[in-house]
Amino acid sequence: MLNKTNLHLLGGQLDEIAETPYFSAHLNEYLNQLRRVVQSTIDQYSSLPVDVLSTLTNEIGSITKFLAGSTSKRIPYEIVYSLRLGLNSWINKDAIITTAISPDFRSGFYFQGVNQQFNILAKSYLNIDFNNELVQISLPQLYRHRPLYNIPLFHELGHFLDIHHQITSFTLMLDENAALPNIDPTKFNPVILRAIQTNYRMEYFADIYAASYIGKAYHNFLESFAPNHPACMSHPATSDRLALINKFLNSESDALIDLFNKAIKGLNLPELKINFIEPSIEDCFNNFRPYPLVSDAEVHGIFSAAWIYLEKTLAKPEGAWELLSEDKVEKIINNLVEKSIRNRMVVERWNNGSDNTE
Question: Is the N or the C terminus of the chain less surrounded, counting Cβ atoms within 10 Å?
Answer without folding.
Answer: N
